[in-house]
Amino acid sequence: MFEISQLDGDSIRDAIDARDRYDLLRSAQADGRHSYGGSMKFESRGDAEYLIRRPHGSSTRKSYGRRSPETEQTLEHFVAGKARVEERVAGLRKQLEDRAPVLRARGLGRVPLLTARVIRKLDDLGWLGTSLIVLGTNALYAFEAQAAVRIDASMVATGDVDILFDARRRLVMTGEVSEKGLIGALQTVDRSFERAKSKTYTAANKEGYMVDLLEPQDHDRIMREGHRRLSDHPEDLIATTTHSSKWLLNAPKFTATAFDERGLPVRIVTIDPRAYALQKQWIVENDATRDPAKRVRDEQQARIVAEIATKYLRLSFDDPVLSGLPKSFRDLADKLVRTAATRSHEW
């Protein structure tokens, strides 16, 4: 049974082309938010009109002065620039939508639709890769995409997404999300998301799809402040901890663009694949409370991800960037490397 298969040349070419266009789209969207986000118009103040800029999602405003030939020209430039960026964004989105069926036909559409929509929402809010990163099985979509391989479907099947919250980073809240935090963001994706009554760190929709909020284990801080949450809303998720997640904020981040089941791109930010493999192997060997069936899958994922890291991504477990991980993690590297090397010589 071949758990990892290399993509063919045509699939790799089409994936690279789509990712390049997606990078252009993200750049244009960032330019639109930074330079042309929100509104600009003349507003009456007493007996005069002033040119006012109101950034999107902010209560602040900036005045450019009274109506004059100069401020009228400023407004014209803003309107023209905004239209130009919007046209570019629309054009790039259309190109990606047109190419999506080809990517889907090549089997590159891998990320489940709801998972992709949740991750995109976190990305659109500016949370992904700053305060939040993707953990768990969905990280494998990023690893396989960057390595130009396909992992056996049984290894990536999951009905949830795990999110790690780095509370050291400040979250910027806007709109409805500012009041309801993560649960508010999820409800903009699917209104049926609610916090589970038995697990305050879990949100579930009407089909049973779950989102779990995790935080690194820090007993002293939790005793002082309690578990983290993204907002003060009573229904927002309250992060839970696992022992093996304690050091994950010290792991390098890993970013890749995968494709959802429709063939549309989704940016995934997760932990370095070597850190992922080491964490899974640590769980296998040290977590006596782990469900036996899950332990089997943990071991399989550790082995597969280690092989992707070393054989396809050419990453070394001796890299100094992993020095922030505990020695108990790093000591498992030799076992993973030996297993990956053995598999690479199998028929």
From TrEMBL:
UniProt xrefs under InterPro entries: NTP_transf_8_dom
Spans annotated as Disordered: 53-72
Domain Nucleotidyltransferase-like positions: 115-321
A Pfam family recorded for this sequence: NTP_transf_8
Highest rank taxon of the organism: Bacteria
Name under which the protein is recorded: Nucleotidyltransferase-like domain-containing protein
Organism name: Roseibium aquae
Lineage of the organism: Bacteria, Pseudomonadati, Pseudomonadota, Alphaproteobacteria, Hyphomicrobiales
